[in-house]
Design goal:
The chain is α/β, with parallel strands linked by helices. 34% of the residues lie in helices and 13% in strands.
Length: 308
């Protein structure tokens, strides 16, 4: 067998098989059982070579497809917010004339605008406070809120509303941010549903934080209600894309992200968010959801970053 033919044979094997071929030839050569560097094998070496080639031929060649992870989980539910147009008109009685196109009502109910929801985590606050009104922002926390407000203003977006948790640290953060958006006429709205809490028992569990089961039961229902109120596609009457700011808490934001992306909600604690960070969700008229940023604080100096 010529050197060129042997090299072709070696290159034809998948993955690391060529190394094994070379090793077999080298072993035979060392034992004096081969003719030349890549010559024809004789005796026991030839027998071993034959067994090796048969075994190698039985192994499937590597292909990218054979190593592609299989999809997991369920298919995307386009009616996750119960606002898919067909579900809104299905089974309804209409007063439309019989000659009218039956699809016209469904077309009129289709959302046409995109909702952009910017979720802001409150800034650093006084952890030693025993009641909510004592858990106000620290001097660094107020600086962080200023940076966040400057960043939101610099984006040049037309914000429609700023909704904030009624807890002291979120309210104060929202008030500082609003100063930077004063020329846009952004309304401030307080909401108890957005208060911090334990949305669902995390998987895997953690040892440093273990609320009672009743807290998950009560907080989880409230935070889920907040998700259903604020995270959904646009109403069919909305004509232009909207930009809404929600100032709340890390647990709430992480739970919202998991629910909106249809990820297992019990994975919410696997994400970390800095104080004053921006998380941006986009909800298309079709019901598709995209996460544009998660916990962005790149607009803050490194020495101002905290996660408390």
């Amino acid at each position: 067998m010529s050197y060129r033919k042997t090299l072709k044979l070696i290159c034809g094997f998948a993955g690391g098989s060529a190394v094994l071929v070379l090793a077999a030839a080298a072993t035979a050569a060392a034992a004096g059982e081969s003719r030349g560097y890549f010559g024809e094998l004789r005796g026991e070496a030839a027998s071993r070579w034959s067994r090796f080639t048969v075994l190698q031929a039985a192994q499937p060649a590597w292909t990218p497809a054979s190593h592609t992870p299989a999809p997991t989980g369920q298919a995307w539910d386009f009616n996750w917010d119960k606002r898919e147009p067909s579900s809104l008109t299905n089974g309804r009685k209409t007063n439309a004339p019989a000659a009218e196109d039956p699809s016209s009502e469904q077309d009129n109910s289709k959302p046409k605008a995109t909702r952009n929801i910017l979720l802001i985590r409150h800034s650093q606050y006084n952890l030693s406070g025993t009641i909510d009104k004592e858990r106000i922002l620290t001097p660094l926390g107020r600086e962080q809120a200023e940076f966040t407000g400057e960043r939101l203003a610099a984006l040049g977006l037309k914000y429609d509303v700023m909704i904030h948790s009624s807890m002291a640290r979120a309210t104060e953060t929202a008030n500082i941010i609003s100063k930077h958006l004063s020329g846009l006429g952004v309304d401030l709205v307080s909401c108890d549903l957005l208060r911090e809490g334990a949305p669902i028992e995390p998987v895997p569990p953690v040892t440093h934080w273990k609320p009672d089961a009743v807290q998950y039961h009560e907080d989880g229902a409230r935070i889920e209600a907040a998700f259903r109120r604020y995270i959904h596609r646009a109403d069919a009457k909305q004509k232009e894309d909207s930009y809404e700011i929600i100032v709340c808490h890390a647990n709430v934001i992480r739970y919202f992200v998991c629910r909106a992306l249809q990820f297992p909600p019990e994975g919410w604690l696997r994400m970390g968010l800095n104080n004053g960070s921006i998380t941006w969700l986009t909800i298309r008229p079709s019901g598709r959801v995209a996460l544009r940023t998660l916990g962005d604080t790149g607009f803050m100096p490194p020495d101002k970053l905290t996660r408390t």
